[in-house]
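Researcher: Next entry in the queue.
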Amino acid sequence: MTEEIRSYEDASLFDALDENVYIVEPAKFQMLFMNRKGRQDYGIKKDDYVGKACHEVLRFRDTPCPDCPFLPPVPDRGIREVYNARLDRYYKVLNHSILFQGKDARLEVAVDITDFVRQRQDLQATLSAEAVLNETMQILYAEPDLDKALCLMLEHIGLFLKAERCFIFTMEGSTMRMTSEWCAPGIAPRKEESAAEPRSGIDRWFELFSRHSNVVVPDRQLLKLVHPTEYDALERMKIESCVAAPIIIHDEIVSILGIANLAASKLDGASLMLTTLSYFIATTMVADNNRKLLEKASYSDAMTGVSNRNAFIRDIEQDQRLIDQGELAVGVIYFDLNGLKEVNDTQGHRAGDRLIMHLADTITLFFRKREVYRTGGDEFITICLNMPEQLFTERLARVMAFIDSSTTLSVSIGYAWSQEKGLSLQQVIATADAKMYEEKQIFYSDGQRKAR
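Model: Structure for this entry, 452 residues:
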């Protein structure tokens, strides 16, 4: 599969991430960008890294690192685990080809997995457990769908420990809900039927988690007198014995990883495994969330919140395939602000930006955000797939009336709707564009604030 190349002009959005992010020009091993977190960890002042070699900045080396992903014959892609001797930290590094300010570059997101790696190193003596952990990590690496990967991981651990059930509870304010589950053959699943459990039922667990300890319950009956609320909670969840560990992200317990109803002789070993797995799951969750943030940034317009040109190019190809398969109708509306340059020149670019956002907000009053694309500085396109002509015409009339009644908006609008067999979406877009251009010419030739 060909790797998708995304283009970035401004990398400041990466300053919001809590992981190290850097951009390198691989042909020259030259640093182009390092985010705030990276500069803090390396003790580098802003822009001090610019123009320096990545191996010099990141590892104090005069020559490329032996494990450099940019060395021939083939650049490394995907995810790799590295050790940084300068920081004495371990990282899982996500590596992507991008265009940065017109240059071929590599974007690297480094997730700190030091705690996980050191826990894993402590388990080297337990060879069978280590093998299972490695296999489990491979499952999480190999499966791109995080929910599916977690279910496969729970199955792998549950079978190894001969447990009845493995689960993940996710925090939802003052309650928690089972979001992943594996059950041994013959054991009825609980995930779909279980309701949200109050956190107060297992207050003792959170006290232990706050002291960096796992929960080990060798026998639920032992809790009946001393911790009756916890006993009742475990009874509802059909748990006779269990081990549980917190999944912590940025000092917050986001989930609980647990193994239920296993032999007493396996409890301590299971607890040690969960300590390691919880770290690894946390880093995988962070990496998955960062990937989603980067994807959202790639396909969303930061100013207006609607989809951007990248999303437009992606979606029209997908929409054309749907049209070809189902002979669907399509309606297109082209919006172009009038007089934006004059506003920018006389009132400033902030006033122009407010006008652009006002138009975006207006369009999304009548059309879903995912149907609206900002394709240029002052241009927006709405694509309505499989919308009946009458509904399309009604919504078009409403948005045009709203714009005409506005004292601040002047917009040239072109539109087209088609249900012809074998229709070309590009042609429908071109028709709407041409009509918009006609209105734009009328606006400027007549010197009117409204084109219609």
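Model: Residues 116-292 form a domain with the Beta-Lactamase fold (CATH 3.30.450.40).
Researcher: Noted, moving on.
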